[in-house]
Structures are given as structure tokens and as C-alpha cells.
Amino acid sequence: MPVADAETAVLIVGGGPVGLTARALLARWGVPTLLVERRRELSPFPRSRLVNVRSMEILRGLGLAGPVAARAFPPEFGRVRFRDTLSGPDFATAAMTGVRAPVPESPVTGVVTSQDRLEPVLLGAADTPVRFGTELVGLTEEPDGVVALLDGPGPGARSRIRARHLLAADGAHSTVRRLLGIGTEGPGELGAFTTVVFDADLGRWCARQPAGVYFTAHGSFLPLYPEGGWAWFGPTPKDADTADWPAVVARALGPDAGVRPDVLRVQHWVMTAFVADRFRRGRVLLAGDAAHTVPITGGLGMNAGLADAHNLCWKLAGVLQGWASPALLDSYEAERRPVARTTLSQAVSHTRLAARVLDRRRERLRTGTATPAPAEAPWSERYFAQLGLVLGVTYRSGAVLSVGGRADDTGPDYVPTADPGRRMPHLWLGPGRSTLDVCGEWFTLFTADPAHWPPPPGPWPLRVAPLPAGHAGTLGLGPHGALLVRPDSHVAARPAGADTLHRALAALTGTAPTA
Known about the structure:
Structural class: alpha+beta
């Protein structure tokens, strides 16, 4: 048995948004963690851009929605625009649902921001240990935990950490996934791309028509921060090592733009699309890009990873704190892998829609049939119709009782429902207070008659939340009815009485009921 230099409850590998969110969630539960990240600092690149409405709900639960929104773009940037060049007029446009404007189904609004603005907020959300410049290079599984071999920080430094569980959030090229021999399914590598971060005054073409992304025939433009800065990304050219990047960007700006961009950074990367064959092996669990990656079109990837962490962390806490059986962790893959497959399908669809729009436009330009007037293409209504996917997910596993529907049949439309497996509908309980705000590091029993529901004996964290009679009716509850909602705000069961509540908690956590 390897000798460990230190121990922790959960070792988190990867310091991107998913790993940092998991660290913050586990800290709320009081679970000791150590996060290791091979980079020496947080990423300086903008990378992911969209924090969707469901992710903002998760951040609201951590008290972070306000700080994230304060550093983000205003809502009018919640739109995509298609142009021949950046200096040309729109020929198509689409609003980002739940970002461009509030939606009644949620207490929050999604935001357009840059990952390098999001990560510092997440890092500051907990004070548990973080080691930058530290890479996992080996992994040994044991009956009661895992032992990770770490390199760094600093040259020649090497240590072993024993953890009860390991959460791998180490990206698309996950070392943990490779060491465990877990395969993937899906298209795989979709192509090589380059991101160029630059400064330029583009206000004359964008200030009155803001957008989170501008697609052009020669690559895409993204405003980076409310105070300025831009990024361009497109397919990596064959002469990437000698490319004149200011000229490449200037070409996409337009032949008459007269702007020479000041290039600050260039990053080459590969777009991938896959879902891991499994999300768990023993005490090791995959999340975020380690478990699934999708094309960036539509902004679904990082948000799916945050939902992974939200689903998983309360289950880890339950197992570590003794009020749930280790079997509860089986529900993580059962619930999140179908969602990952649906997310991959929708992201690929978005990418193909965007490609068809640009291909059609290029053909019309070639034949001289393109019109200069903006046109709203039929695809745009579907392009960011994400509420069904991000709010309408139905979980189906042993951690949900009497499930209706399927986990992988979500469509673009979202109809709130309190069926088991679905996200608890948002209803205002008072000024600025949502039903989702009542959920936290506990199970929540929503009922119009709290006196009818004495707390059951047992180890489970549970709070009873009174509902106005009108809200109870909206949720399909009678005068004495109740909804049992999990810590991740998904409905677990509709218990019929105190005895069935007791049995429900025992069943979904895999523990024996207390007499």
C-alpha cells in the first residue's frame, strides 16, 4: 500500500470552472478537499463565454450570481449576429434565450462573460487548499480510497495524496480518464482552431448592434470585456507558425475597415466532441470536459459541467457524512450521462445550422444573389432555444422515485412541472425570494401544511418549507400534499404521508429506514 504524505476527503483534479465550482459546493457541505491544477495560475484566455440561466441558478445558490453578473456584459449582448465581414451589416441574428432578457421560469438571467473573469470569482468562493503548478501523474485505487501521485509545485517536487474519492475535472484530454482506460464515443476531433486575442477600436460597427459573438465568413469575433478587448477565432491555417495574425484578423474585419489589430496572444486548440463511456469507476468520478466535450457553438459545454458538479457534490457529501450509501453515487452517471449525450447532439446541431447559414451566404455572394438587407433566417428561432435542455432535464435513477418521462427526451421548449426527476419550478415566495432559494445543503419538503409533516427519524438533513396555498395548487399539491426536493433542486418524490416520506428518504439515499 503506497504511503501517503497527506489525506483529504475529495481530491479535485482540475482548476477550471467545473473543478472550482465543485470545490465551492463541497465547502458548503463542510467536506474537506484539495484541488490540484497543472497550470501555474488561472487561465488568462477568455475561452468559455456563456453562463446560462441554469448555471446562474447554481451560482445564486453559492451567493455568486451577483459578483459574476457585475463583471459580465449587459443583457443586450445576449445575441449572435451573422455578417459577411465584421464591418458589414447583419444578414441574420438570433437572441440567446434566458440571456438577452429575463424569462419567467427562473429567478435569474444568464450572462455573457469571459472564463478568465468567472474563474477568480469561483476561486474566492471557498478557502480550502489549492495547489497550482501540480500535475497528477499516477493513480492507485484501493478498497477505501485512491492514492494520487502528484508532480509539483516546483521542479522535482513529488507527493502522494490519499483521498476517499477523486473528482476528475481535468479537461478533454483528461489524465485521469486516460489512466483509468475509460474510452469515449462520438465524433472525436472536429478540427484545429486558433484564438487570437487583440485590441482594436471596433465600436463603429458594433456599439449600436452589440452581440456576444459575430460570425463571419472568415472567422468569428467575440468582445471580451465590457471595458474593451476582442478575440477572433477560426480554423488554424496550414502556415500557422508563420501566419501574419494581424492580417488574418484584418481580412475578417473587411477590406475597407482600415484597422490593423494589435495582437496580444495566440492560442491553438482542437475542437472535440465526445461522451465518456462511463462517468465513474470505483471512487473516481469524471465531470465536465473530462466526461464530455461538445462544439463551442451554442455555449453548452461549460454549463453542462457546472450541472455535473451540482448533481454530484451533494451525493459525495451524503456518502462521506454517512447519511447516504455509496450506491447513491451510481445515480450520477445514470442521470448525467444521458444529458451529456443530448447536449452533444444539440451542440452538433447548432454547429451544423451555423455552418449551413454561412455556406449558403458564401454561395449567394459568389453568385451575386445576396441581399444587403438584414434577414431573419428560420433557423434562428431554434438556435438558442435551450430552456428545454437546461431547465427541463428529467433525471431517472434510483435517486428519484416514481419518475415520469425520460432523461434524454428534452426538446427546445420548457414547460415547468413538479414531476419527480424534474427541476423544482421557480415560484416567487416573496420579494427576491424564489422556491429555488429555499433549496440548499439539505432536502427540502415543500408543503402548504407543515404541521402535517413532522420530521422523520433518521440521519438525513431535511427542512420543511411552507408554501402559499396558491403555489401548492400550481404544483399540483392538495391541502396536505408535499414535494420532496433534493439538494440540487430536483424533485425526488411526492410522498403521501410522514411514513412514505421516511421510506422515500431511505430509498433514494440507499440507507435503511429507521424504526
